[in-house]
């Protein structure tokens, strides 16, 4: 990925996913399953209150959601 991957918490990622049309469909333990019914894409977000997600997990979420990396960098 040519751009640096942002470090976000699960709560910040969840807000971006919701903004981009994803819906929380289930949770098992600390893992939340988010799905966008329009695109058919699905991502898993490990939810550990207040902790930043590892870079590999962030890359997986960005790639799996097909949301431009700028959306994650320009979070509100």
Features:
alpha+beta, Metal Transport, Frataxin, Chain A, three-stranded antiparallel β-sheet, single chain, 76 residues
What this model shows, in words?
This protein is of the alpha+beta class and 76 residues long. The chain has a single domain (10-73), classed as Metal Transport, Frataxin, Chain A, CATH 3.30.920. The chain is 34% helix and 24% strand. It has three helices and three strands; from the N terminus they run αβββαα. The protein has helices at residues 10-19, 55-65, 69-73, and strands at 23-28, 31-36, 41-46. It has a three-stranded antiparallel beta sheet. Strand 2 (31-36) and strand 3 (41-46) form a beta hairpin. The longest helix has 11 residues, at 55-65. The two termini are 23 Å apart. The mean pLDDT is 92.
The CATH topology is: Metal Transport, Frataxin, Chain A
What's the helix-strand series?
Answer: HEEEHH
Bin the strand percentage: 15-25%
Mean pLDDT reading: 92
CATH architecture: 2-Layer Sandwich
What would you call the shape? Answer: globular
Q: Look at the helices and sheets and give the structural class.
A: alpha+beta
N-end to C-end Cα span: 23 Å
CATH class: Alpha Beta
Uncertain stretches: none
C-alpha-based Rg, rounded? 11 Å
CATH superfamily: Hypothetical protein
Tell me how many strands there are: 3
Count of DSSP-assigned helices: 3
Work out the helicity level.
Answer: 25-40%
Looking across the biggest beta sheet, what order are the strands in? Answer: 1-2-3
Whole-number total of structural domains: 1
Tell me the major beta sheet.
Answer: 3 strands, antiparallel
């Amino acid at each position: 990925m040519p751009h640096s991957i942002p470090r976000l918490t699960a709560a910040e990622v969840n807000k971006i996913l919701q903004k981009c049309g994803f819906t929380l469909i289930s949770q098992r333990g600390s893992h939340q399953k988010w799905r966008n019914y329009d695109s058919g894409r699905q991502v898993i977000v490990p939810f550990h209150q207040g902790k930043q997600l590892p870079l590999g997990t962030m890359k997986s979420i960005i790639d799996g959601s097909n949301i431009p990396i700028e959306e994650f960098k320009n979070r509100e």
